[in-house]
Amino acid sequence: MSTSIQTLKPVVEEQTEKHTLSALVDNEPGVLARVIGLFSGRGYNIDSLTVTETSHERHVSRITVVTEGTPMVIEQIKAQFMRLIPVHHVTDLTVMGKALERELAMVKVVGKGENRVEALRLGEAFRAQVVDASTDHFVFEITGKSGKIEQFIQLMKPIGLVEVARTGVAAISRGPEKMDDHQK
Amino acid sequence: MSRTMTGAEMVLEALLDQGVEHIFGYPGGAVLPIYDTIFENNSIEHILVRHEQGAAHAAEGYARSTGKVGVLLVTSGPGATNAVTGLTDALLDSIPLVCITGQVPSHLIGTDAFQECDTVGITRPCTKHNYLVKDVNDLARVMHEAFYVASNGRPGPVVVDIPKDVQFAMGDYIGPKKITHRTYRPVVKGEQAAIREAVKLLAGAKKPLFYTGGGVINSGPQACDILREFVKKTGAPITSTLMGLGAFPASHKQWIGMLGMHGTYEANWAMHDCDVMVCVGARFDDRITGRLDAFAPNSKKIHIDIDPSSINKTVPVDVPIIGDVGHVLEDMYRIWKNKAEQIDKKALSSWWKEIDGWRAKKSLGYKPSKKTIMPQYAIERLYELTKDRKTFITKEVGQHQMWAAQYYGFEEPNRWMTSGGLGTMGYGLPAAVGVQVAHPDALVIDIAGEASVQMTMQEMSTALQYELPIKIFILNNEYMGMVRQWQELLHGGRYSHSYSEALPDFVKLAEAYGGVGIRVDKPDELDDAIMEMINSDKPVLFDCRIEKLANCFPMIPSGEAHNNMLLASDVEAEDLQSAIKEEGKVLV
Question: How would you label A42-56 residue by residue, b for 16+ Cβ within 10 Å and e otherwise?
Fold first, then answer.
């Protein structure tokens, strides 16, 4: 069924791209539900989503969404996002040049003996900090690009990884301009 | 200057400050304080409906026919959920509504209290915006914001959910003048460079075409006036979506009929072959475009829309102009005149020659009958007998809706209320109630099907109570005709549950409500019966028995392109069942 619908879809076959969008929204009840409902209701992807209030005086929150789609779909996502009434701005950090993107993860590794030593060694190599430890386990805190964190987690798997908590991506543009200067 | 009053009083005060004269509603436990205020204050007329869906459609009809915001008032829980269909309908057709819902008291929210539902959660995806008011001191601001959001930019429905304790609480009222919205400021003026580019593109066209939609009607009568002047000045052909009918007079020679799935042959071919398309306040809906990869393949497209998300949604355009249709057309027309632009006369006249060739197909032709009433004939007669009056037409959804669009000639905007986007059966009767409330002296006719109209038939009771002489013109073929037509096309004529084996006697039903029932089944008795309907000062159910198996043509089979239409004249020769290919069958 899906293939037959495909043939009726437009025009140029386009590759999907990954984009990081940042939005400033009024921090009012339900605003996150609006954003998530928009993505799920229209069938867009959310690879990562972070949100917290960044301006307490103005009650403004910053939402960072990593999403994927063809260029036409990405444009549509931005337009639909902007259509939500409590949204101030939406910035596509990906089209503005290489944005800074960071994620934090806490990684719990349980083990003894050689595995334990290896875990600690890898932690150092990745500049992860040990934030909790016993004779049986470590909790590492690591920040960096998602790829680096992904790699760290993969390496920890065979040597006792039991649990991971990740924040999702926070992102900001390089250069002196602030986000409000990049209104749609 | 702020004044202290209860939340319920603020609601009414805000409605008055917003110029509201009529509201449609249904009381219940969680809105009783507001109803109590209405009881004391008679400056707003409340119309008691029989079902909350009826309130929403009535408010839509009211809004669409006046250009004002429609207002409804319903209770919590089932009151709110019953209104959801109407809210969704208004969202898809961009109709400005403010829906006030009662909610259980704040301290009971989240406890599964009696008649509690998560109204803002349920209505979030089917409104333009919604509010839960937790503090009475926010209420006045929220009420004014709701009207602002509903009516500015692309219009739409807004819900204000008010817990019962907030309706009782005392707080400060502020008037609408002190409200500026923090974030929502839609752009109304179009970008000048884009407008100039659009003018240049249109002036260089050899096969230009205006394709207009509901956005022109929403922009207001002035926008329609400018559109008319501009189109006439260019000499280009014009077509419109279902929602846009009436913006340009159907009797004018440049009008080539509605386009899309059941549009005219000439409109769809012109769409397919045009080289410059000016899309004004329309949104390239799937009923319009047909097969996307074959949609107007050789055209440059100009798209004027107030909603940026409408641009490039399904069809990429060359010159997007974001702004209010009225403003943008005004600028375009001014530049057009100042530069004394003209479309090449030779090219234009050969374009019209092509169009006349398509017109000659007479795609709206049908086989007349002396024995049974053909549905097309019924609409033609209805049009002839009502065209010289101030007539408003509402419709249900299905074959009759398309026949009405094809055979009733619309000359004026805001005269035509239909459920376009959502396709809500049961829209027409309550919408007619709303229209008649707004225009007490007008002739208001719901062109209906016998299946659709039963979904909201109870609003006949409302019409009687308020002496609203609406006319329900039922094209009765005993089938859910459009469903039957699709079953014929797609499912080998296996008419699964599309025939109503039991129908009410509509004449007796009308009489039971206190209205007038008329039945006619012979073509030569139709005119007299229609005149009897028009001359009645009561609500009328008109049971027009039509040819049962008539189909609605022309038709672009789903999944096909504009230049592959089925005409009534082809159908006998062609095997109907092969008209839709495998890939088209999954579409609706």
Answer: eebeeebbbbeeeee
The residue type of B514 is G
The CATH homologous superfamily to which domain A17-97 belongs is ACT domain (3.30.70.260)
- Is CATH 3.30.460.80 the right assignment for the domain spanning A100-170? no
By CB atoms closer than 10 A (0-12, 13-18, 19+), residue A174 is exposed
Interface test with B, best of A77, A83, A90, A92 (most B CBs within 10 A): A83
Is the separation of the CB atoms in A184 and A90 below 8 Å? yes
CA–CA distance from B409 to each of B134, B246, B353, B373, B379 (Å)? 49, 8, 23, 20, 10
Residue A182: which of A24, A19, A18 has the closest Cα?
A: A24
Number of Cβ within 10 Å of residue B587's Cβ equals 16
CA A85, A87, A91, A93 dihedral sign is: negative
Length of chain A in residues, anyone?
A: 184
Residue A4 pLDDT > 80 = no
Chain B CB contacts of A184 below 8 Å: 308
- Residue B334, chain A, CB below 8 Å: the answer is no
pLDDT in tens, A35-87: 999 999 999 999 999 999 999 999 999 999 999 999 999 999 999 999 999 99
Q: Which of B472, B450, B462, B310 is nearest to B382 (CA)?
A: B472
Q: Is A125 on the interface with B (CB under 8 A)?
A: no
